[in-house]
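Continuing the series of single-chain predictions for the mutant panel. This is the parent chain; the variants come on the following pages.
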Amino acid sequence: MIRIAVANQKGGVGKTTTAINLATALAAIGWRVLLVDLDPQGNASTGVGIGHAQRIRSSYDVLIGSASVSEAAVATRVPRLDLLPATVDLSGAEIEMVGLEDRAHRLDKALAAEPPGRWDIALIDCPPSLGLLTVNALVAARHLLVPLQCEFFALEGLSQLLQTVERIRSAFNSQLSILGVALTMFDRRNNLSGAVAEDVRACLGATVFETVVPRNVRLSEAPSHGLPALIYDLRCPGSEAYVRLARELIGRLPALAVAA
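Parent structure:
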């Protein structure tokens, strides 16, 4: 199973929107997808229509060892897309895991314990921090996808995240690689958006995906209906951008693309 962490410690950059819609796009072409909600706010869970009453077990239970991933995962209304939901209990997970010897490897071990073949790919939606939950995601993942808002302060956060990735590589997970940086919330009317995009491409080159996700009200509306934007309005500019981004992502995972 391919594992991709969707991470950026800065909030409001489109992590959850990116994770939900990429997961939906991959499920739509036939891949069996697991979306892991590792954010105590549980926005990814809400965004695919899984209410609090349906979150009998959650990623919290998986991290503390009281449930397996298969036991906690629930099916969504999107065919082939399963969700490992999040609850507010995750807020205390970091404190509870501090005393555990394998605290950085809890998610990795839980995913590794799953029988091969149930899911082709897992997308892990991380909280807006570089705490123990995000560390668990980066240790479990083999690839990192970074949504980056086209604003000045986003650049400062990116350097911190890249430093954290290097520390994770050297201490816990030498296989972690940066799959790509996805530029989000791009406003063509704003010169700053274009300037930030140019700076990021100049700095990171081919690491940056060609697709740029625009600011789009339909992307913001979709979660309130418990639907991915690709289902809520497939023809809106935001959804079309995520379809293109999914194609690029597939191109960077050639082994899985061929197998699928």
